[in-house]
Amino acid sequence: MDLLDNYKKAWKNQPEEACKRSTVEIYKLAQSKSSSIVKWIFIIGILEFVILNSLHFFIDMDEAYAEYEKLGLINFIFYSQIVAYIILFYFLVMFYLNYKRISATDSTSNLMKKIIKTRKTVRNYVLFNLGYMVLVIIVATIASIQTNLEDLSNKKILFIVFATLIATLLILGILCLFYQLLYGFLLKKLNRNYKELAKLDSKD
Amino acid sequence: MQKDLETKFLLDFETNQNIAHKICRIYTTNRDAHNDLFQEITIQVWKNYPKFRGDSKFSTWMYRVALNTAISLYRKSTRTIKTQDFSDVAFKIKTTPYDDTEEIQLKALYGAIHKLNDIDKALIFLYLEDKPYKEISETLGITNVNARVKMNRAKEKLKNILNP
Fold it and tell me: Which of B5, B72, B103, B119 to probe by mutation at the A interface, max A CB count within 10 Å?
């Protein structure tokens, strides 16, 4: 007889749970607030959309626009922002649809896939935003060099390019680090379990 | 309509609550965590209950929702405590006098299962509950062949822990 057969017998004969819940207790439990990872992903995802889109409240936009005007970038900023809002809308819809598709009645692997996909939508949106930020910085730097070309020595141009590069990398680095921490904290367990389940699909 | 559904759910869940308790015992190692996970399972089963069509047995459906909650939805890591004090399991189970050897075996079994990863826990649990491979592969969302391969590996791991 297999070693596990004995244990299986013991498992089958195990007594029922000592503190069984009554229907009243079950009713109360069922009505309580969920603290599932999906709920957290939804809340944090929405927060990210809101925070990223309210950043301009902290910046004096009149001053920024005046500066863009001076650099001849006002059209670029205007049209790129329209595109950015269309893309924001697309990401919001995708986020909502993916979130809605998450269901505990799915198979384990499908459920995990859908949770990870929902989270990835927000991550991609953040990446898009960072990319857009970098694009604006690059365009603004080039434009300001071009505008002031006569007054600038080669040394000064080199310095501006170098300083912008360092500042951009620093901001990106900090944001990425923060994001990795948040992302890792939220999905550590899920990613580990998903890898465990997927490992075998690729192996066999 | 809602009242009918609620009554049906309460009845179904109350009769089958042992499934959830066993899963909690496997995935948690103390009473607080057990209650916490049990609560989340109750919420998830109720939330999804309108989707339960009755084309399968309620218990079969509940295995899936409860396991999904433990593996993917429950926020806290279930692997933080790796070793299990036998007395921890004992207090969760009614202390009715019964066969000593089986009690010792059961404690050892729970202790060993706690050392497995989340997916292996699910596989071993479904094996102990005598679920057919078709149901196991459908619940986990892997092919039948993969379920068998994975199950054999999980059983080997369990045996090695039980009988090093």
Answer: B72
Nearest by CB to A200, which of B6, B128, B149? Answer: B149
Nearest CB among A8, A17, A103 relative to B48 is that of: A103
> Chain B within 8 Å of A117 (Cβ-Cβ)?
no
Cα dihedral A61/A62/A64/A70 (nearest 10): 160
Q: Is residue A26 in some structural domain?
A: no
Chain B contact for A145 (CB, 8 A cutoff): no
CA B6 to chain centre: 24
pLDDT per residue over A13-67, tens digit each? 888 887 889 999 999 999 998 888 888 888 988 888 888 788 777 777 788 888 8
A54 touches chain B (CB under 8 A): no
pLDDT digits (tens, 9 = 90+) for A117-175: 998 888 898 888 888 888 888 888 888 888 887 777 888 888 888 998 999 899 889 88
Task: Please name the member of A7, A27, A104 whose beta carbon is closest to the beta carbon of B44.
Answer: A104
Q: Which of B71, B38, B58 is nearest to A26 (CA)?
A: B38
The answer to whether residue A179 is domain-embedded is: yes
Q: Which domains does chain B have, with CATH numbers?
A: 1-80 (1.10.1740.10)
Name the DSSP letter for residue B92. Answer: T
The structure tokens 């609560």 sit at: B39
For CA atoms A11, A14, A16, A17, the dihedral sign is negative
What ipTM was reported for this prediction? Answer: 0.83
| Contacts B101 to A, Cβ<8 Å | 10
Contacts of B65 in chain A (CB under 8 A): 104-105
- The total of other beta-carbon atoms located within 10 Å of residue B148's CB is 15
Spell out the residues 6+ positions from residue A82 whose beta carbon is closer than 8 angstroms to its own. none
Measured between its terminal Cα atoms, the distance across chain A in Å is: 29
Chain A positions in Cβ-Cβ contact with residue B21 (cut-off 8 Å): 16-17, 20
Report whether B75 contacts A35 (CB < 8 A). Answer: yes
Q: Report the number of distinct structural domains present in chain A.
A: 1
pTM for the full model? 0.83
